[in-house]
Amino acid sequence: MSLLSTMIEHNQQFVESKEYEPFITTKFPDKKMVIITCMDARLTELLPRALNLRNGDAKIIKNAGALVSHPFGSIMRSIIVAVYELAAEEVFVIGHYECGMTGLNPKSVLDKARGRGVSQEMINTLQHAGIDLDKFLTGFDYVREAVENSVDVIRNHPLLPNNLPVHGLIINPETGQLDLVMDGYADLER
């Protein structure tokens, strides 16, 4: 049985037995917060438990590295929607130690892409079209700096209010311990 078939079968049983009922909530985050964090599988259950979050408490946006790499990209759009349309009042950027984006090498990624069937011709076409694949596929050296940079992009966004607390934290993916990098309340007092 394929992974998809297994998932569909489980889902049918889940719905039929009404196991979804404990998770019913609204689209508005009860704790009025939006979290940008990494897609790392270790954080799927750990992060909500370490933060005492239940279903419906927060809008959680995940991507590789918890990065807000472009002020007008999809992550930033999601934050703006969460603030204005879904009543989020605070933003938390939560990176983690041992992140796969630390030291990510674009050459390695492109070598693996070629190994999976992406042609060198396609890579050349993208580069010729002005896409800087090296920049696009480069990670970061230090998670703390990555969190600080993402917080700065959010805090300085022209479409967000000046009184929006934007916090930066790093979580340990084994223990769930949080280290504070930037206190959004303190930054508002300056």
UniProtKB/TrEMBL annotation:
<comment type="similarity">
    <text>Belongs to the beta-class carbonic anhydrase family.</text>
</comment>
<dbReference type="InterPro" id="IPR001765">
    <property type="entry name" value="Carbonic_anhydrase"/>
</dbReference>
<feature type="binding site">
    <location>
        <position position="38"/>
    </location>
    <ligand>
        <name>Zn(2+)</name>
    </ligand>
</feature>
<keyword id="KW-0862">Zinc</keyword>
<keyword id="KW-0479">Metal-binding</keyword>
<protein>
    <recommendedName>
        <fullName>carbonic anhydrase</fullName>
        <ecNumber>4.2.1.1</ecNumber>
    </recommendedName>
</protein>
<dbReference type="Pfam" id="PF00484">
    <property type="entry name" value="Pro_CA"/>
</dbReference>
<feature type="binding site">
    <location>
        <position position="40"/>
    </location>
    <ligand>
        <name>Zn(2+)</name>
    </ligand>
</feature>
<dbReference type="GO" id="GO:0004089">
    <property type="term" value="F:carbonate dehydratase activity"/>
</dbReference>
<feature type="binding site">
    <location>
        <position position="96"/>
    </location>
    <ligand>
        <name>Zn(2+)</name>
    </ligand>
</feature>
<dbReference type="GO" id="GO:0008270">
    <property type="term" value="F:zinc ion binding"/>
</dbReference>
<feature type="binding site">
    <location>
        <position position="99"/>
    </location>
    <ligand>
        <name>Zn(2+)</name>
    </ligand>
</feature>
<dbReference type="InterPro" id="IPR036874">
    <property type="entry name" value="Carbonic_anhydrase_sf"/>
</dbReference>
